[in-house]
Amino acid sequence: MSVYSEITESARRKLAARYNPGWGDFEEIPTDIETFIFDDSYLALRRDEVWPSVVDDLRELFSKSYNEAVLLQAIGAGKSFKSGIILVYQLYLNLCLKDPISYWGLARGSKIAYMNTATTELQARDVVFGEISARINNSPWFTGMNAPDPRVKSKLKFRKGQYILPGSSSESCPLGYNLFCAVIDEASYMKQPGVNTSQQASDQVAKIYNAIVRRRESRFGDNGLIVIISNPQHEGDFTVRKAQEAETNPRLFAKHRTLWEAKEYYKRGVKWSGQTFFDEGINMNVPIELKASWDKNKHLARRDFAAIPSAAKDPYFNYEQLRDIMAESDMSCPVRIFDDQGYPKVWHDWFKPERSSDYFMHIDLAETRCAAGIGMGHWSAYRTKAVLDYVLKIIAVDEKKINFEKIRGIILLMRQLGFRLRKVTYDGWQSKDSLQILEAKGIEADTLSVDRNLGPYDTFLSFVNLGQFDTYNNPELLAECRGLELHDGRKVVKPTFGSKDISDAAAGVCFHMADKVGVGRPLHKVVSNRKPISVMVRR
After folding, report:
1. How far apart, in whole angstroms, are the C-alpha atoms of residue 308 and residue 306?
2. Which of 3.30.420.240, 3.30.450.20, 2.40.50.140, 3.50.30.10 is the CATH number of 319-536?
3. Average pLDDT for residues 365-394, to the nearest whole number?
4. 3-class SS of residue 452
5. What pLDDT, on a 0 to 100 scale, did the predictor assign at position 343?
């Protein structure tokens, strides 16, 4: 065996760089990611310390010239471990250059930064001085000249003007740095202090991402790497939307990993048994070891263990039960023809009132006046069900705004067709004139806000959960209910990108049905996904 073959991989690459003119800018020819992870010259990790899925993902990430990556990972799938290796490898690549500052066209004395951002700066520091420091301190390559400066405590400082530092969930955290590589860890959970809604949380990570992109592009063009890694929260969050861009952006790498794809072992020393159950909702076979978590809360389990985002960040509605009700219903939409805004033009001839039934209507007018929801329903005594006869969505089109007079026309038409209107309510927005007009025509009218408390939505949900609800197949209503979120345990809100105009109308109608027809009847508990309430309903 020659002396040359006995020297380390790193030393061989240094010699090759010195004598190969093609590598004139390099002090050492960089090695590939898999060699970097396992070879004794670099990170020197053992095969049993690194899950095969981690190696597969990193090998794929660094196989092409990607400058962005989105990794949608289950909880416990090794996100911090993976992101630590990514940052260290990017640092290594630049340290292989003779002079990375001049190579990238930066002014003398400049510094190149590699940043790990997390939901808090403390969390980011834990990753930098925990996971990343562990990789560096146990690496033969990062010794001697390549070791971090022990005198610097706030960040990891290396020779040639290279730094690894922690960041926070503030969009100002990248300012002042020449960012070559950044990892946005747990991106779906980032938010501004005091901000709780999913819309604002999603906006916050978008602000951080855009700030980092601007720093990288202004210094390094389309070079460098930005990695977004998180367990996805809901379909509208930034990480999910960003991952979808991979279909059209060849420089964006996206990867999804369930817990059982990421880990060979269910728990320490115990492999997955191979037995599964089928989750029809996500079309996926799930290990039987996770069945208890699925039975307890399948929406949360799908999100945490399958990395499948739910329609809402904190799902409120049992939309699958509502979907089944719609599928089994023999009802049909009573409107035969709609106009371009969604107003009914022609009603079916068969649409007649049920004998001796009181009918209730609720109208939800969007504050932006871009949409309105109109619902009507009745309690069917012979079916012992709350029947939602219809919910209609009216939208503003071009110059055509929501016409309050047309909405009143629908209400008056119902009475003309023989429906005994017991009560009509508006949500309060721009409703004063309509209420006065309806009252003048002998129709009891009032305001009802479905946003101020959970009563209307809990009642709607109760009817669905108890199987005391019926309506026709209405994909738009189902989609709105699927995206509903519970905010602070006190309020039902729409998702980040969505609406709840007709679901508000349906909730208002259900609330009146329970409130009016149940007077004098025994109480029963409303079955809610959250906090049960009591309402009066006919049994």
Report:
1. 5
2. 3.30.420.240
3. 88
4. coil
5. 93
